[in-house]
Structure formats: structure tokens, C-alpha cells
């Protein structure tokens, strides 16, 4: 429910409303605050008088953002697991362990830190009109446990991490009173140290109160709870109203419910309204046994017929109604009134025939995580505008769902999502792992049940709230415990889908399984993951997982592809959380002499990251019967070692290398898909691909025209055709439009490498849905490309003349010293470093995965270099590099002389920032040498590698711009370490 328009704040609140006086007092403003790290405040009766050590601060807010707390240091009692403990021992981190320069690399660092109790107090003035009424204190978001005293009398405690804390202060006499609040942010219940509801990994373990702080004078009989159960197909709703009364009982009276349609601009259309009134008689009296309080209760069910033209709610048309519940009752001859408001969205979410549906329409969840990352404040915003911006950014990138990882957002997030048609997966505040566990009789079991009830009561009416999980990746007797939790929670509130947890377990009780197996790269796979181990294609899907379970699968935390740190982002941190981790990585890069290349590393790694996300997303879209995915993530995760996995930074802002329009092309409601058996071809090969459509729009597409074309880098169509004309495309992703074969040989003889982009378009009226895939075509290799790499004697006498090839460094030194032009091809086992060179970027980050490969974030080179005149490349890794990177190694090039830069550089993990290369050219003695650790093995199924080798040999044979920098034999041998 929501704040009422008169009388009081009910125990639950759904949608924001302006609450007029005279029955509310806003407590925002100056309070006195005293820190109590030793826990002596209650013993010393700080609730009775404000201690001399108190300082002034402002609530709502946190004490840390206002400078209260301790300096961060080695003894800071962080909330959160530290997996990589090298910070405490590694000599590289020694400068950052000093008190004056202290900086941690594993998450954002608050300016000050405080973990413990804090006491807040102020005087309040109770108006004369409130005489005889019970007074409630409401605190919208508290971190974590709140305890309240009035005039030295203890009122009680609340400990919710997900919903407002409400304290019944009793009947306060008019006049001045001392209100004292203690907030304790220590671990009240072990929900798991990494749960984003409490952890320093993301929002930080803040202390304070944010959002709405107010006192409310309660009527004797009031609305306790309003729950709305819509029937979208029938355009009706049942409104279940629970009432509560004081010692006089609830009496008898009427409940009137009015539903008014909300326009697209958020205003209410009074002309389009529906109303119904139901009478009631109070019952169910009970003695609460608390300060002599007796309550009675009643409940009323009100049916609303909203009319055949009532708008439904979904991602395309988020039709809403503002629901007003008016109570008029008489107790012992006295009349009592109360009003509450909430939201109504005609929305049915279900699973039918193994598919997720919203209002009977097949739905595919395209989600990303929101992990409570708020660097400026360190706590979540409680205003709708802030959440509206995040949701707009997500929608611009084609997404339709936000998953709140192990936390539940404030009401404003639900309000913004309701208005935008954004689906939400909400979770309890638990990541019961890393020492915590479920189902073992610990306190967390009961806490989950409490929090679940509170979340459903508080936010359950919001149509955007479509999925609920208990939390993230549990441990313990989780399957047993969560099976009962799913069944019980669904029985209590069947208005959404339920799953045991994000991650696991996949149990029969679930409506859907949110599991990590169906994705392109799983934890621990390293260089054996699909994108690193298998030649690139666009045919992979997850049909085996779909066939193995009757429930829809929403794949868990796909992607986790990193980009290099954006050092320009450092200046954005002007609030509580400081990017000392990014500053450390900047120092490491500067020590390697590469700080001036930071922007280049960001762009190159970011383009590879985008490429990986595209294939990850399209594999899910290609899977018929799949339920969707959750990205990890669209925005960066600044904790757990610093996981820069987003195309957006921690502020939900672009990093400059991927526009939202580009992302939405492969991640939107309607996506054309090409099933390509490979990404590299030879001129003269028949290009073949199958056309598939993933369409999860507002309605089926009728009379669509589906076309294909091959386009050059200038966007000019080289070849093209029609796949289907005037075809109807139903909802779903099972539409296959057949195989297209393109005889590229009809273009005639092409003796240069080409990059052509395959473009698919779906035209319906004025709308065009398009997607594209770059492909590379190479001419047949000449004899020089087939030169073995193991012996210079095998080099044929023909062109390129004067070039010799060897795999032995001593031989290369001898030949070059004597004036030869030498290609030194290093086999992987000839290189002694431990750098895991992969095709993809780093997964999550190398520190928190305990060094899982790859350790690199792609390649960077100058696309204008003459080597690339006939090997099309944009200065970063793209699919044509897979053949050269698979089975290759990186060379440590930090021993090269000043002025000698690798022709092709590999980007190292930011934790190491080593100078890496895969191709180095230099003068040696009277000759020149090009040393490469790329995999240049030539074979018919490796056209890119064969062509690159040929171009490299031609490049060495050319007299155009020979290398200027020199390398010594010792420096050359140093590349093998």
C-alpha cells in the first residue's frame, strides 16, 4: 500500500504519494549523532540524554557520507570476503599499505569507515490535535537494525534490510519529547558477507537512515494492508483490504475502492475510473500483550470490473491504475476515516507449455544485474528520478528486466519500473554462502521468512515485480529448505513467478530455473570455454538444457567479460566512495610505461568485450524455448577484486566504445539471427547461413520482408537478396526462414583480403529491425604461406626473396646478424612465462578467480600499419584473430629498448600491467628480425592465419620503411622468458 492522503501511514506502502498535513510530521533535518563503537550507549543511558560527544548531522543520510567514522586501514573490519589476499603480502602493494597512502584494490574505498552502533536524537513537538492518537515513526530505509526510545522509554527494534521500519510510539501527550534512535550496522543476522544488502563490495556497509522519515498520527481504526490481485484476461481485480482497530475494536463500516487510469505522462484520468463499495463488521480481537495494547481486525474483499477497454500492463504498454481505498467506520458512536493508495497493473505472468508468458504473450527476459552500486552516496536512491534514469539506460540497450542481486530496492525503483514497463527480479537480502548457509536451523532461515513476508506486503502490488528469488547462490541444505520456501511463498502470493535462488538449486518447485550452465563461459573453464576453444561460428545454442528440464531457463550471470579500467572515470568519484582501486591500477600502468596508452587499451578491450557479449546474447536468443538471461553486467561491478564487466561504468554511463543503439541491435525485442558455420572464408567459397528470427515484440509481425546483403566497410552493398517476402513472423524464436547460399565466386577473381558485413533486415511498414556480422574473405595462399616454421632450409627459393623462417632463436640471431630478413616463429613451449593468452577478454577478473585464464584483454595495434593493408583489422581483436590466437602465447616485452614498440601488443590484466606483445620487429646486426608468438600454422581451415603469414612474409621482403629500432641478441632471447 501507500501513504494515505489523510490520517496515517499504513504498515505497508507501495506507491509514492504526497501526504498532506495535519497528521504527518517530516523529521528530515538536523539530528544529534554519537558513535558507539564499544557498545556502551545503552548501559550509560544515552537514550535519556544526548551525550556531550554528540555532533550535528542531517537525516536522511548516512554518517559516513557526512565524515563520521574512522580512517580506512589494515585493521578496518570490512564486511565482505577477500579472496585475493596478495594485497597484504605482495611488495607491489607495500606503498598502499601505509596509513598516509592506504588504498585497497578489491573494491571502492569509502572516505571513512564505521561499523557499530550510532545514536541519533532530536526533540519532536506533538501537536495538540494528535491528543489520544497513536503515533508511528516510519524510517524508509535503515542499515541495519533500528531501536527507538521516547523520553527514555524503550519502544522496540526493527531489523529489516528490505522495507521501511515502523515503530509504534504509543499515545504521546502534546508537547515536546526526546526521540532517540540507535542504528547498528554490524551483522545482525549472518546473511552472507558478500550479500549486496550489507557488503562493502558494492554499496558499502553504511550506517544511517535514508528516504522518508516521518511521524504519523494514526486513527483508531485504520487500513493495515491492501493487496491487489488482477485478472488481466477478464479486466478485473480483487482488492483485499485488511483493517485493524485499537481497544475500541474495528466496529462496522464501509470500504470504498476507486481505480483511476494513469495517463502516459503520469497524471490521473478522473473520467476513466471504476469504484465499488463493500460493508464490513469487525472481528478477531486479540490482546497483544504489549503495554496493554489490544487489537481487533477485519478484512474486506472488493471486486472491480475495470471494463473491456482497460489497458493491460507489460513492457510495451505499461497501463496502470491508481487505486484509492477509503475507509469509513463507526466505533462506539465515533466515526473514523482512513485513506490509502496503491498501484494496480492488469498483468498476469505465468509459465505455459514451458514458456514464460506475460498476459499470455511469450516473453524472453533480457536482464542485467543491479548490485547496489551507488558510488556517490554509498546507499541506494529513494527518489523515482534516479531509478527512472537507470531504467531508461537499460531500455535503450534493449533490456526489459533488472535483477536485484541479493537485495531489494526501495519503493522508488518499483514506481519507476511500473511507469516504464520494466520487469524486476527482486531478491531477499541473502547470499548465504562463504560461511553462511540455509536450512541448517540458523537464524538466517527465520530472517528469510520474515523478509519475504515484508517484501510481498510492501511491494507486492507493483506489476513490475514479476520474479522473486530468495537471494543468490546459497549453501547448506538449500534444496530442501528452498523447496518449502517456494511452495509457501507462492501459496501466500501467487502474483509472480518464483525461483529458489539466482544460481541454484534447480528444483521441481521452481517456476523457472535461474542457472549458470548455459552460457558461453562458465567459472573455471578458462581457455577451454567455447569462445576460446572452438572456431568462431554463430550456430551454438542451449537446446540440450531446454530439453533436459520442463521449466524455463533464465541463464545466470552470463558474460562477465571485462574491459580495461577507464582511468578518465576516476574524476567522477566526488562522493563517499573513492576509486583507490583504479588509482592503483593507474600506477601499475604508469610503472610499465603505458599510462599514455590507457585510452587505447580501454577502447580495444571494450570492442572485444562487446563482441563477446553479442555472441553470448545471440546464443540465448537462438535457443528455442529458452526463458532469457541476466547479464553480468551492463554496468561495472566495482567490488570482488574490481570486475569491469560493463559497457557502462559504475554510474551507468557510457565508456565510449559501445553505443546503446549498437547493443540493442542484438539485444532487443526483435532480433534477426544468422546461423553461420564460420567467420572466415576463402574467396570462391559458397557463403552459407541460416536465417532465424527472435521476435518477442508487442504482437506478431505481419507481411514482413526479410532481406540480406553483404556490405563493404563503406556500407556499400556488394551482394544482396530477399530471404522472405510478405511473411508473418509469430512471437517467439522458433522461426527459421531457411538457408541462404551465396556463390561469392560470381564476383570474379579477388586477390586481396576483404571484410564484408553480413546484414539481415526485417522490414514491416516503416520499421526496420537489423543485425549484422563481420566476415572475412581471403584469397588462396601462395607457396610462401606454406613455408614450414621449423627450418630455414625449407624456405623455397621463390618470392619473397631474402626472407628466411626459423623457429630457433639462435639461428635467427645468426641469420639476421649476417644480413638476412628473418621471421622467427616461436612455438608456445618455447616461451616460459605464465601469461594465459586467450581470444576473449578476462572473465570477471583474474584476482577473484584465482588466476583463471585468459589473463589478457585482447590485442591492440595500429590499423594503419602497412602490415594490415591486406589484413583488414580495426586495431583490436575481432573474430579473424581467433585462428592466430588459439594455441598462441604472449611474450614479455618489458626488456625491449626504448623506442621499440610491439607491432601487435597483447593487453595484460590490470593487476599485472605487464608489457606484452605477440609481434615485434627490429633491426638486428646487418639484417632484420620479426619475432612472433602468434599461431601462424597454415591449413585449409585456417585462411586467416595463412593469409596473415603470407602478408607478414611479404612485409619482411618489402624495402618500404624497414624497422628503425634495434634489438640486441640478449634482448631477443629475453622475449622467451
UniProtKB/TrEMBL annotation:
Keywords: Hydrolase
GO molecular function per UniProt: hydrolase activity, hydrolyzing O-glycosyl compounds
Gene3D superfamilies registered for this protein in UniProt: Galactose-binding domain-like, Glycosidases
Ranges for domain Glycoside hydrolase family 2 catalytic: 349-502
Biological process according to GO: carbohydrate metabolic process
Record bears the keyword Hydrolase: yes
Cross-referenced Pfam families: Glyco_hydro_2_C (PF02836)
SUPFAM superfamilies, sorted: (Trans)glycosidases, Galactose-binding domain-like
Keyword Hydrolase belongs to the record: yes
PANTHER family xref list: BETA-GALACTOSIDASE (PTHR42732), BETA-MANNOSIDASE (PTHR42732:SF1)
Name of the featured protein: Glycosyl hydrolase family 2
Amino acid at each position: 500500500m501507500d501513504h494515505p492522503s489523510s490520517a496515517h501511514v499504513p504498515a505497508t506502502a507501495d506507491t509514492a504519494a504526497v501526504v498532506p498535513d495535519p497528521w504527518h510530521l517530516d523529521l528530515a533535518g538536523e539530528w544529534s549523532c554519537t558513535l558507539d563503537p564499544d557498545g556502551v550507549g545503552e548501559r550509560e543511558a544515552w537514550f535519556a540524554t544526548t551525550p556531550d560527544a554528540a555532533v550535528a548531522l542531517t537525516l536522511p543520510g548516512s554518517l559516513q557520507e557526512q565524515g563520521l567514522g574512522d580512517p580506512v586501514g589494515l585493521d578496518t573490519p570490512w564486511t565482505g570476503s577477500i579472496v585475493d589476499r596478495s594485497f597484504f603480502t605482495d611488495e607491489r602493494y607495500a606503498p598502499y599499505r601505509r596509513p598516509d597512502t592506504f588504498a585497497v584494490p578489491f573494491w571502492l574505498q569509502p572516505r571513512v569507515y564505521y561499523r557499530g552502533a550510532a545514536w541519533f536524537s532530536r526533540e519532536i513537538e506533538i501537536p495538540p490535535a494528535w491528543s489520544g492518537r497513536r503515533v508511528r515513526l516510519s524510517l524508509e530505509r535503515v542499515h541495519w537494525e533500528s531501536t527507538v526510545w521516547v523520553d527514555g522509554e524503550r519502544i522496540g527494534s526493527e531489523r529489516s534490510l528490505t522495507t521501511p521500519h515502523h515503530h509504534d510510539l504509543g499515545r504521546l501527550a502534546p508537547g515536546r519529547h526526546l526521540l532517540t534512535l540507535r542504528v547498528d550496522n554490524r551483522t545482525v543476522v549472518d546473511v552472507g558477507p558478500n550479500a549486496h544488502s550489507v557488503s562493502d563490495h558494492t554499496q558499502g556497509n553504511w550506517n544511517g537512515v535514508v528516504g522518508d522519515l516521518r511521524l504519523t498520527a494514526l486513527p483508531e481504526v485504520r487500513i493495515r494492508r491492501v493487496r491487489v490481485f488482477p485478472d488481466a484476461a477478464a479486466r478485473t481485480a480483487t482488492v483485499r483490504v485488511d483493517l485493524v482497530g485499537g481497544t475500541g475494536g474495528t466496529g462496522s463500516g464501509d470500504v470504498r475502492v476507486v481505480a483511476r487510469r494513469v495517463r502516459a505522462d503520469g497524471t490521473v484520468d478522473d473520467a476513466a475510473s471504476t469504484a465499488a463499495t463493500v460493508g464490513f463488521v469487525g472481528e478477531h480481537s486479540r490482546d497483544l500483550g504489549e503495554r496493554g495494547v489490544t487489537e481487533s481486525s477485519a478484512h474486506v474483499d472488493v471486486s472491480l470490473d475495470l471494463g473491456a477497454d482497460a489497458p493491460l500492463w507489460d513492457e510495451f504498454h505499461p497501463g496502470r491504475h491508481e487505486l484509492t481505498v477509503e475507509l469509513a467506520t463507526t466505533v462506539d458512536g465515533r466515526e473514523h476515516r482512513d485513506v490509502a493508495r496503491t498501484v494496480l497493473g492488469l498483468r498476469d505472468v505465468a509459465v505455459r507449455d514451458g514458456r514464460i508468458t506475460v498476459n499470455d504473450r511469450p516473453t524472453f527476459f533480457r536482464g542485467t544485474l543491479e548490485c547496489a552500486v551507488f558510488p556517490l552516496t554509498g546507499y541506494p536512491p529513494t527518489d523515482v528520478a534516479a531509478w527512472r534514469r537507470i531504467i531508461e539506460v537499460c531500455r535503450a540497450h534493449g533490456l526489459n528486466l533488472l535483477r536485484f542481486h541479493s537485495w531489494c530496492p526501495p519503493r522508488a525503483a518499483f514506481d519507476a519500473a511500473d511507469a516504464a514497463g520494466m520487469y524486476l527480479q527482486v531478491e531477499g537480502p541473502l547470499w548465504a554462502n562463504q560461511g553462511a548457509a540455509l536450512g541448517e536451523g540458523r537464524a538466517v532461515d527465520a530472517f528469510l521468512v520474515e523478509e519475504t513476508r515484508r517484501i510481498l506486503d510492501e511491494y507486492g502490488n507493483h506489476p513490475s515485480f514479476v520474479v522473486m528469488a530468495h537471494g543468490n547462490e546459497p549453501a547448506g541444505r538449500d534444496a530442501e529448505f528452498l523447496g518449502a520456501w517456494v511452495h509457501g511463498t507462492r501459496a501466500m502470493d501467487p502474483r509472480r513467478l518464483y525461483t529458489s535462488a539466482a544460481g541454484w538449486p534447480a528444483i521441481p518447485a521452481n517456476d523457472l530455473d535461474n542457472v549458470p550452465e548455459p552460457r558461453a563461459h562458465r567459472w573455471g573453464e578458462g581457455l577451454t570455454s567455447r569462445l576460446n576453444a572452438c572456431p568462431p561460428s554463430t550456430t551454438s545454442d542451449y537446446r540440450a538444457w531446454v530439453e533436459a528440464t520442463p521449466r524455463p531457463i533464465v541463464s545466470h550471470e552470463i558474460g562477465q567479460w571485462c574491459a580495461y579500467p577507464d582511468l578518465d572515470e576516476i574524476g567522477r568519484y566526488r562522493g563517499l566512495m573513492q576509486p583507490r582501486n583504479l588509482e592503483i591500477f593507474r600506477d601499475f600502468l604508469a610503472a610499465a610505461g603505458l599510462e599514455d596508452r590507457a585510452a587505447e587499451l580501454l577502447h580495444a578491450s571494450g570492442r572485444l568485450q562487446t563482441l563477446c557479449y553479442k555472441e553470448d546474447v545471440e546464443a540465448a536468443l537462438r535457443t528455442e524455448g529458452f526463458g532469457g538471461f541476466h547479464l553480468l553486467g551492463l554496468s561495472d561491478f566495482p567490488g570482488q577484486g574490481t570486475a569491469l564487466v560493463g559497457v557502462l561504468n559504475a554510474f551507468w554511463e557510457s565508456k565510449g566504445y559501445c553505443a546503446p543503439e549498437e547493443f540493442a541491435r542484438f539485444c532487443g525485442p526483435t532480433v534477426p539471427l544468422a546461423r553461420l558455420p564460420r567467420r572466415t572464408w576463402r574467396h570462391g567459397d559458397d557463403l552459407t547461413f541460416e536465417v532465424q528470427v527472435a521476435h518477442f515484440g508487442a504482437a506478431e509481425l505481419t507481411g514482413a520482408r526479410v532481406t540480406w546483403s553483404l556490405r563493404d566497410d563503406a556500407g556499400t552493398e556488394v551482394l544482396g537478396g530477399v530471404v522472405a517476402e510478405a511473411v508473418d513472423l509469430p512471437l517467439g524464436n522458433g522461426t527459421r526462414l531457411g538457408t541462404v547460399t551465396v556463390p561469392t565466386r560470381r564476383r570474379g577473381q579477388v586477390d586481396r583480403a576483404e571484410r564484408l558485413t553480413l546484414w539481415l533486415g526485417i522490414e514491416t511498414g516503416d520499421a526496420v529491425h537489423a543485425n549484422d556480422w563481420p566476415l572475412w574473405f581471403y584469397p588462396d595462399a601462395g607457396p610462401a604461406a606454406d613455408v614450414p616454421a621449423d627450418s630455414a632450409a625449407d624456405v623455397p627459393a621463390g618470392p619473397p626473396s631474402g626472407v628466411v623462417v626459423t623457429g630457433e632463436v639462435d639461428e635467427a640471431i645468426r641469420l639476421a646478424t649476417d644480413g638476412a630478413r628473418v621471421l622467427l616463429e616461436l612455438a608456445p613451449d618455447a616461451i616460459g612465462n605464465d601469461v594465459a593468452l586467450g581470444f576473449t577478454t578476462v572473465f570477471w577478473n583474474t584476482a577473484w578467480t584465482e588466476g583463471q585464464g585468459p589473463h589478457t584483454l585482447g590485442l591492440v595495434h595500429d590499423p594503419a600499419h602497412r602490415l594490415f593493408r591486406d589484413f583488414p583489422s580495426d586495431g583490436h581483436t575481432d573474430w579473424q584473430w581467433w585462428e592466430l590466437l588459439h594455441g598462441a602465447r604472449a611474450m614479455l616485452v618489458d626488456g625491449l629498448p626504448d623506442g621499440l614498440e610491439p607491432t601487435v601488443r597483447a593487453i595484460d590484466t590490470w593487476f599485472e600491467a605487464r608489457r606484452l606483445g605477440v609481434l615485434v620487429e627490429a633491426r638486428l646486426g646487418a639484417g632484420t628480425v620479426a619475432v612472433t608468438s602468434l599461431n601462424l600454422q597454415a591449413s585449409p581451415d585456417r585462411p586467416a592465419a595463412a593469409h596473415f603469414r603470407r602478408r607478414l612474409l611479404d612485409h619482411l621482403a618489402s624495402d618500404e620503411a624497414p624497422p628503425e629500432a634495434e634489438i640486441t641478441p640478449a634482448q631477443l632471447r629475453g622475449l622467451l622468458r
